[in-house]
Amino acid sequence: MKQISILLSFLLVASCGNSKKQSATLLELKVQKATLIDQIDSLSTILKSVESKISKLDTTKRLNVVTAVKAKNKLFRHYIEIQGTVEAEQSVELYPERSGTITSIFVKEGQQVSKGQNLAQIDSSIIESSITELQTQLDLARTTFERQKRLWDQNIGSELQFLQAKAKKEGLENNLNSLREQAKKLKVTAPFSGIIDEIFIKEGGLAAPQLPAVRLINLSKVHVESDVTESYLKTVSKNTEVELFFPSIGKKIKAKIDQVGNFINPNNRSFKVRMNINNSNNELKANLLANVRINDFQNSGIVIPTKLIQKDGLDKKFVYTLQKQGNTFVVEKTYINTTLNYDNESFIEEGLTENILIVDKGFRLVKANENVILAE
User: Fold this and answer.
1) Strand, coil or helix: what is 218?
2) Contact in structure between 236 and 275 (CB atoms under 8 Å)
3) Parallel, antiparallel, or unpaired: how do β-strands 310-311 and 317-325 relate?
4) What does DSSP say about strands 100-105 and 68-70: parallel, antiparallel, or unpaired?
5) Same domain for 168 and 134
6) What band does 23 get if pLDDT is binned at 50, 70 and 90?
7) Is 136 found in the same domain as 243?
8) Does the residue 244 lie in any domain?
9) What is the crossing angle of helices 159-184 and 125-153, to 10°?
10) 3-class DSSP state for residue 316?
11) pTM of the predicted model, to two decimals?
12) DSSP-derived pairing of the beta strands 371-374 and 64-66
């Protein structure tokens, strides 16, 4: 037991010795670690200082590269874009004035006709017979009247006989003229020169005043009608410039407003405008669709692309402009007032001068007082 106790005591002493050595080593490592951390912090501070000095001296490092456009002083036009339709000055469906059977049609669809030309005939045999009979009676009445007149001029015969012969002749003349007018109403005639667009009747068919017989159109003079909202009453007037585009035929025409309506449609709060067009080649057809651009504003001034205009938190409009500073440019926030926008361009009322540089590509990435590089 004594030997065992001695051995345990020895081991305990050895263990204490090793513990003291280990503690001494751990302490040294902790001290060494703290020294290294201090050195790292010191070097980081120095590095930041060096980087700051480099940044100040090297002005071309890591700067945003942008492009710019110049503000232009030019004529700006604003247009109202609406739709309209072509209307023929002379376009009508002809209706017969009397009922009856169609005996003859003298024209074909697409045929050019003249004013007063007979287009179709309704059966007039009964009236023609009456005219022939009445004409015979009139011839006899005229002969009788002429004889009575010669005798009366020689103071032969009674005045009553002369007046009766005269009254009978004139009555028959009036009746004959009446029948001839009725006979005219059994014809469908052209009220103006034009083209037969469509024939609705057929030979042997029935004609009636409530049924159209022929459609006649003259396309030499046409006009375009459009509805314009009442908010443009102050800017749209007679002689206002208009651009007409007919997408179906790919044709553009410049015109002027010839008439402004004086009635506001209560259903859509709009008024009508009319543009007269010369259509000598008949290229424009009735009811053809037209895109109408009415020039309601034009003025010379500063014009820039609309996409470059931004708004701040107070809803104020601004653009980023550039000012030369050494080898770089400084970004400035410039507030502006705009009047109208059209076709991706804006008319600047206030805030910009001609040829000032406005940030284009990269305008979303820059900020005020920032140095940037302007790309060539």
Assistant:
1) strand
2) no
3) antiparallel
4) unpaired
5) yes
6) low
7) no
8) yes
9) 160
10) coil
11) 0.60
12) parallel
